[in-house]
Amino acid sequence: MPDRAPQPVDRQLPTDEARDLISLVRDIAQREIAPSAAEEEDTGRFPREVFTLLSDSGLLGLPYDAEFGGGEQPYEVYLQVLEELAAARLTVGLGVSVHTLASYALAAHGTKEQQTEHLPAMLGGGLLGAYCLSEPASGSDAASLRTKAVRDGDDWVITGTKAWITHGGIADFYTVMARTGEDGPRGITAFLVPGDAEGLSAAVPEKKMGLKGSPTAQVHLDGVRVPDARRLGDEGQGFAIALSALDSGRLGIAACAIGVAQAALDAAVSYAAERRQFGKPIADFQGLRFMLADMATQIEAGRALYLTAARLRDAGLPFAKQAAMAKLHCTDTAMRVTTDAVQILGGYGYTADFPAERYMREAKVLQIVEGTNQIQRMVIARHLAGPEER
């Protein structure tokens, strides 16, 4: 039944360069990422060599300026690259999104001297980044973070613990939000901390239900000394930088979610075309056909939503509300679609012999990271009805 086999997503891309870029990403995904994804996720292996390849191929700095080694691609294109990578393996797609998030503070708020010194290695020199905002006692309430940075001459001394850090312990650089002043959001400053800084260490990675190949760990900063030249933006500007970075990062999570959902749909379509019951493929039963139709419709709606937000961003227009909507809708869609994919595969869907159960476990974390979906609803509601009374 070749007419029922999943086909590559038909993407509306703005340039021939973007189409060539997607072709390159699909080739890398099919040759270097997808074949070993299931085994490496099962064993918890992080594919550092894949990130080196992505860096060498110019795929770790796509939305940033070519002057500093970036790809200078619009977010509309960059997010579709993320989707393709996440469909092959979420550890890779999410890792690229986190690296882009970690590079944002320097790329958007660093001085020209800072950008010239650090960005080329971050965007195309094989380095891998991590983003340090959350702490053991401050997740959704990020403005209450307690990690402190104290001025000492021309240096800052940073002490505290960050939590839920993707690439914790393996990153080459950490964008760290630390308190330099008063309580609340106005007392937070951003710093670029080298991964090999004295006093920086990582705990044993968390044992997670999914995304096992991507290390998530607490990062301890025990008197880590960094020069003032590694302060990003003004003192007290760190929380605003963090929120601005998360608006874009949420679009990355939305794109990754649609990638996982698309992979689950493709697996379900392939299985339904081949599995026969009562003398015919189960894809011929109306109840199942309707499930597939609903899954595909939800995916297309999510893709349209994140691309609309990306185009607003590319045009320099406000997009925070649409980013929250995209993160909310796309990650909820991934959870529904992957759950339905397991159902379509029946008993086989519940086994590790097929990828549907892995997609379902991975989809769950996307509803949590970079602002839970309850936080997204709060963000959207504030845009609609204003801030809550206190």
Write the layout of secondary structure elements.
Layout: H1 16-43, H2 48-56, H3 75-88, H4 90-109, H5 112-124, E1 129-132, E2 148-152, E3 155-166, E4 173-179, E5 188-194, E6 200-202, E7 216-227, E8 231-232, H6 238-274, E9 276-277, E10 280-281, H7 286-314, H8 320-345, H9 356-366, H10 373-385
Parallel strand pairs: 1-4
Antiparallel strand pairs: 2-3, 3-7, 4-5, 5-8, 6-7, 9-10
How would you explain this protein's 3D organization?
The chain is α+β, with helices and mostly antiparallel strands. The protein is 51% helix and 14% strand. The protein contains ten helices and ten strands. Strands 1-4-5-8 form a four-stranded mixed beta sheet. A hairpin with a 2-residue loop joins strand 9 (276-277) and strand 10 (280-281). Helix 3 packs antiparallel against helix 4 (90-109), helix 6 runs antiparallel to helix 7 and helix 6 (238-274) runs antiparallel to helix 9 (356-366). The longest helix has 37 residues, at 238-274. 49% of the residues are buried.
